[in-house]
């Protein structure tokens, strides 16, 4: 099964070769690399051309600057693989990352989307970030809880992969100018909203580099930027609700039943199941009796799990 690794680059000439080498050194052999340069103004083009000349598995794409989402769209359009991996040009893969993820897809045919733990590196310190305790967690379907609570269930770009059959449901993604940065949010939200089944791998197989130009860590949140991001997210969700019919019609008691059914899919952990219980807390479309009954049913699902303090 072919794996397509989509590397997006913008002015990371000093990092991009390391990223490519981390893919070339993978223990999994059936790999193509789609290397998208988003109009860099440094010497990235020369670095990429040299890499492509030396490795036939690399397909370079040079395009005018349009932002991260436009790079994703260009890469997905060119990719031939059955599973798509996303890698920022300043990050690195552990040598057996792709082998582990492809094994996960093979062992779980229902799996549509994966993310894994990451190791955050800032030159002097390293920190492993693991949002779920189990080694492999089947999170089931998460579309309704994402739609109702704007839940973000994933990790940064370089930890993400998606089965091609799911990607084809929502690519190309519109609103490229809205998502010049943080476009991994589009992948994470849309994978849920288009009913992809998500799996999480606890192994920290991605090295996330923190530096001065990094867009995820290392920058303080600006209130104006966050407000703009909220508006862009609302537009993305409205687009998804037009494409996926279930979000147009599920209201009131039907929403209660649908959320309960979704909560039972996969093996969601205590923290995520609590989100389902809270989803009804302020939903005035559902009667108080239904909300009380819903919380009791979620409590039954929570009961066999460890105490929440052990799963945070």
TrEMBL record:
The keyword Calcium does not apply. It comes from Syntrophotalea carbinolica (strain DSM 2380 / NBRC 103641 / GraBd1) (Pelobacter carbinolicus). This is Glycosyltransferase. GO terms for molecular function: hexosyltransferase activity. InterPro entries: Glyco_trans_2-like, Nucleotide-diphossugar_trans. Pfam families: Glycos_transf_2. Keywords: Transferase. Residues 4-112 form the Glycosyltransferase 2-like domain. Coiled coil: none annotated.
